[in-house]
Amino acid sequence: MPLRPVTLARRPLMFALAAVAASALMHAPALAQAKLKVAAIYTVPVEQQWVSRIDKALKAAVARGEIEYVFSENVSNADYERVMRQYAEAGNGLVLGESFAVEAAARKVAKDYPKVAFLMGSSGKPQAPNFSVFDNYIQEPAYLSGMVAGGMTRSNKIGMVGGYPIPEVNRLMNAFMAGAKEVNPKVEFSVSFINSWFDPPKAKEAAFAMIDKGADVMYAERFGVSDAAKEKGKLAIGNVINTQPQYPDTVVASALWNMEPTIAAALAAVKGGKFAAEDYGQYSLMKFKGSELAPLGTFEKKVPAVVVTKVKAKQQAILDGKFSVVVDDSQPKSSAR
Predict the structure, then answer these.
(1) Which one-letter DSSP state was computed for residue 95?
(2) Span 139-257+288-319: which CATH code?
(3) What is the value of pTM for the model shown?
(4) 204-237 pLDDT, tens per residue?
(5) Hey, how many other C-beta atoms are within 10 angstroms of the C-beta on 34?
(6) Looking at domain 35-134, does it have CATH number 3.40.50.720?
């Protein structure tokens, strides 16, 4: 019976291995559920430039295996509260969205679900204990893109088409205008708002009207503006996303918003049990890599060297804390005629 002692000796090990295997199977669902559940509510199509940056950052977190992510798009203001409550009830640990037009409803939902973390695009202040706010504070690269525009216009007329004249849009337009004026004091601006976040045909028509009056550079705060510039053989400056690949001969530069730093900070806070009512706006600044001026790309050799030198110097001054772009939330106006 020479094998018996060996068999007996192995039994404790076999039992131990079996126990480990059983434990792993028992805890497998728990491990799978360890990923933070995140939901987002968008009032516009997910490809709209502003929310596309949130979506991009969240999908990157999914790719890293950090979170589970679901979203609803084209949610009407009237239906926003219901969708928000639905996601809170579904066990999502973090809920994001743009609450600008539904502030009261969003804050009411947050009060009803104090254990859920809410991070919302908002013009308002954080609301204790769980309603944090963020915004696309990309006025720094907007200023730089304005410098580029001021150096590229030949007619000294720049057209600007925005969605709504709210602080989040106004501050970017005002920064752009200030940057353009620094390089070219003679520049004049035509400013209009289409009162929509996503209406490319309307934005395009507004741009056509400005181009017909002499504008040779367009500030494309909304989709549709670059299409008008392309059709008329004019130039455009992008906002939030880089559309130069789609408009290689039209879009000169763009002020980019990178939502990744904001999302990373929020996820870390939720996972660490330290999420509180805070303003995450700072994570959109250039020093946090939350925003940047897109590479000139196809226009690298077309923008005057003297302008490029000035832009690079100003960018470094911003990063070094030696220059601060003024945050002006007032509604921008067309230049006096």
Answers:
(1) E
(2) 3.40.50.2300
(3) 0.84
(4) 999 999 999 999 999 998 889 999 999 999 999 9
(5) 9
(6) no
